[in-house]
Design brief:
The protein is α/β, with parallel strands linked by helices. A hairpin with a 4-residue loop joins strand 4 and strand 5. The longest helix is centred in the N-terminal third of the chain and has 27 residues.
Length: 252
């Protein structure tokens, strides 16, 4: 049915292939008969110079050929503009041989004044202007998500975060290398003492339910305070009370 691939493609494209080949052959003959830069470029670039010339200097303005040449020229110009714009905005490889996207800086605790995460207590985590807002709660249920949104910045700096948030998030090697009592004495309690001394706004991301304040010690058969439970009981012992409406610890 088909003698060769071009004949098959010609049938598939309703004669467009043979038409394009014939036109290009005609351009080649024109180049041979009149070997100029224009005729050579017109053959090598498949008639692009001819289309541009016809768009701006048509012998038959507003004819079908004129409109088609104008459309082709407009598309060429638009494509060139987009390419140039991309090169200028990104830089060429030769100009920046070792360039790579800059690492996105991690946000630090205190920069954000409002968090998107809604904790299980339902409180809106919004910092108090001019004060440090300390957030307490169960790490598994809430605090882990809070510190992630704050950039998971690990630090032993227990200073103020005026207008921002304060969470306890020390380097992993400190926490994993200590017993619970040692960690409480050296880091957790001093961190909480600073919050009390500053009169921070203390928000509970987790409601102080007994199941979250205590854990069953299977070895002794007794209940032991969780980390959140220790913080909660410590605040109660220092004159604070829990306000279930605001989910805050209020100093008496």
């Amino acid at each position: 049915m088909f003698k060769d691939v071009p004949s098959f493609l010609d049938w598939l494209t309703f004669g467009m292939v043979s038409g394009a080949l014939d036109v290009n052959a005609e351009r080649y003959r024109e180049m041979v008969q009149d070997p100029t830069v224009y005729s050579a470029a017109n053959w090598l670039l498949s008639g692009t110079p001819e289309s541009i010339n016809n768009a701006f200097n048509s012998e038959k303005p507003f004819s079908f050929d004129h409109w088609m040449s104008s459309l082709e020229t407009a598309l060429l110009l638009y494509g060139g503009y987009q390419t140039a714009k991309q090169v200028m905005s990104q830089g060429t490889p030769s100009a920046r041989p070792n360039s790579k996207p800059a690492d996105k800086p991690k946000p630090t605790a205190g920069l954000k004044t409002e968090l998107e995460y809604t904790p299980t207590s339902g409180v809106k985590l919004k910092a108090t202007q001019g004060k440090t807002t300390t957030i307490l709660g169960s790490f598994k249920k809430d605090i882990g998500k809070v510190v992630d949104e704050l950039g998971n910045v690990k630090s032993t700096d227990f200073g103020p975060r005026n207008g921002g948030f304060n969470t306890l998030n020390v380097p992993d090697e400190i926490y994993t290398g200590m017993k619970q009592q040692q960690f409480w004495d050296k880091y957790n309690r001093p961190w909480l003492d600073n919050a009390i001394a500053r009169k921070d706004t203390i928000v509970l991301a987790t409601k102080p339910k007994p199941t979250l304040l205590y854990l069953d010690d299977l070895a002794t058969g007794t209940k032991q305070l969780t980390g959140f439970g220790r913080e909660y009981e410590y605040l109660l012992a220092h004159g604070y009370r829990y306000d279930p409406f605001s989910n805050q610890m209020i100093s008496k």
